[in-house]
Amino acid sequence: MIEEKLGYTLCEHCRGRGMEPDATLCPSCNGTGVVAVFKGPPVVATTPVESPFKRRRFPRYYTDLPLQLRNQQGQNFVGRCVEIAEGGFGAVLPYGISAGTEVAAQVSIPTHTNILAPKAIVRNQKGLRHGFGFVFLADAERAAILQFCSGLMIQSDDGHAAS
């Protein structure tokens, strides 16, 4: 099976530096600092995203779900939702969308029969990675996201799994 390449994004392992802390080449990106992003089948969320910041309002979880976006000019974008939380989501898209852009999102989560269609705004963008905050999230959509994440391990404030 040949996968369609969406583009490139910063290496998660070395955070785009291309080097390990001991000054050896990063084994994930071979020292380039970037990795290819491919279009593939949806994957159920597995583990919470470790955050170096303690200012997060909601725990985040890694996931890999198909995502469609439409901006206010009617342009459509297809990508992958790679993080999800009650307050927003992270995505990898084939094109950069500027911070401050409002979008209508469509994402299908495995625990919910209907496609979620929240309004969101680009909070940050670095390369092909984007952080979105929900502008409007219906109660049913919030409940669906919470249900999807409820079976997953919750991350404590210090970035470790909570017991």
Class of the largest domain in CATH? Mainly Beta
CATH topology of the largest domain: Thrombin, subunit H
The portion of residues forming beta strands comes to 35-45%
How many individual domains? Answer: 2
Distance between the termini: 40 Å
The CATH architecture name of the largest domain reads Beta Barrel
Task: Summarize this structure as a short list of keywords or feature phrases.
163 residues; mainly beta; Thrombin, subunit H; two-stranded antiparallel ribbon; disordered C terminus
What would you say about this model in short?
The chain is mainly beta and 163 residues long. The chain contains one helix and eight strands.
